[in-house]
User: What shape does this take?
Amino acid sequence: MISNSLALLADAGHMLTDATGVFIALIASVIATRKATAKRTFGYQRIEVLAALINGIAIAAIAIMIFVEAVKRLGTEVEVEAGPMLFAAIIGAVANLVSLLILQSGQKESLNVRGAYLEVLGDLLGSVAVIIAGIIIWLTGWMLADQIASIAIALLILPRAWSLLKDVVHVLMEATPKDMDLEETRAHLLSVPGVLDVHDMHAWTITSGVPVFSAHVVVDDDTIASNGSEPLLDELLACLGEHFDTSHSTLQIESQDHVSHEQAVHA
Assistant: This one.
């Protein structure tokens, strides 16, 4: 407010939103560790995805507001104080750099932490844009640099908001995990001796790093009669764990006669 810089105000507002987002991510991570119950059989793991959804919506809203306000200011005479603008932007850049280094190791493992990491990365880039604009205004007096920096901040924010929201929707829609090919999975299961068919396959993600798989497996009657279903089930689960990293799988072993009782409505 002192500098009258829209770019700095946008960066500050964005950082405030992100600080709130990081706090939400922290609370969600704590809640996600709570044990499963009879009413919530997967526990509270998906709370991390909901937190990422809130963060993604907040990021997108901030970006749109910044862009609209910057466009409104284009062509108007706005006096910006470069000194306070630079001072605040440098402090923001240092704070964001420290936060980025803290979050870097965990962002590949958790969608929730990734959301926080992307927010801080956007903040750092925003602070750099403000610093560049402040230097230009200080040296040349070209005030339009402030509006340009504001638009640049908005354009930096929107793609990462879209990326995060796309990943969140993918999980909430219970889509097949991106690194899992159902036809390849079927082929691996069919390669196990005694397996005749695999159908009614479902694969989805509870939260980051927790893929889930279920299927009906038709087994040769002689295999069940000679060895029982337990050794075969162990081999199938080991196959899923080794090739597709699914720690939670549910397989229904069926005889050849049982197939006629089911409708083929799934993969």
In short: The first strand starts at residue 195 and ends at 205. The mean pLDDT is 84. The chain has eight helices and three strands.
